[in-house]
Amino acid sequence: MNLGMDTSTVAQNVQLALAPVFFLTAVAGMIAVVAGRLARIVDRARVVELALENASKTTEIEKNLRELRYLHLRGRLSNASIGLLTLCGFLIGLTIIFLFLGQEWGLHGQRMAIFSFLAGVVSFIAALIGFLWETVLAMQLFNSNALEVERHIQREG
User: Which keywords accompany this UniProt record (predicted)?
Assistant: First the structure.
């Protein structure tokens, strides 16, 4: 079966496709990291929901509700990041395909490869922004809870 490509063209295309393949590896690693954070968010939300059901004081209820709101937002940010990373992986996969077909399609295939690669990079950057935002929210909640504990200790001491 001859697709009209000679061996040197195939070898050149494989070399061109290596950088996007490494990028795919980074995307897969980021998906694993964000999915791990999402799993911890869901686990923590279950614990806080249980504490909310057993809470009797208004202050406990308010604290748990505030934490659940933060966890919900963090979960949405994590889901958005995973979606953007998945889109990035898809676009980088298209880039690899377009690089291989670009020789047959000429300039049109090369333009499509450039567009899909740049769109993938933009998607990756947007996912990183979502990931950063989620980690900032996690730290804000941590700082808020730490300050509450400190105030409680000072009142009793």
Answer: Membrane, Transmembrane, Transmembrane helix
State pLDDT tens for residues 46-98.
999 999 999 888 888 888 999 999 999 999 999 999 999 999 999 999 998 88
Cβ neighbours for 25, distance < 8 A, ≥ 6 positions apart: none
Using CA atoms, how far residue 22 sits from 19, 42, 93, 94, 148, in Å, is 5, 31, 11, 14, 45
Cα 23 to Cα 19, 47, 124: the distances in Å are: 6, 37, 10
Angle at 145 between CA 141 and CA 147, to 5 degrees: 115
- The pLDDT of residue 156 is 72
Spell out the residues 6+ positions from residue 119 whose beta carbon is closer than 8 angstroms to its own: 91
pTM for this prediction:
0.79
| Per-residue tokens: 42 | 């869901």
Question: How many other C-beta atoms can be found within 10 angstroms of the C-beta atom of residue 51?
Answer: 15
Contact 75, 21 (CB under 8 A): no
Residue 71 near residue 44 (C-beta atoms within 8 A) = yes
106: how many CB neighbours lie within 10 A of its CB?
10
**What amino acid occupies position 57?**
K
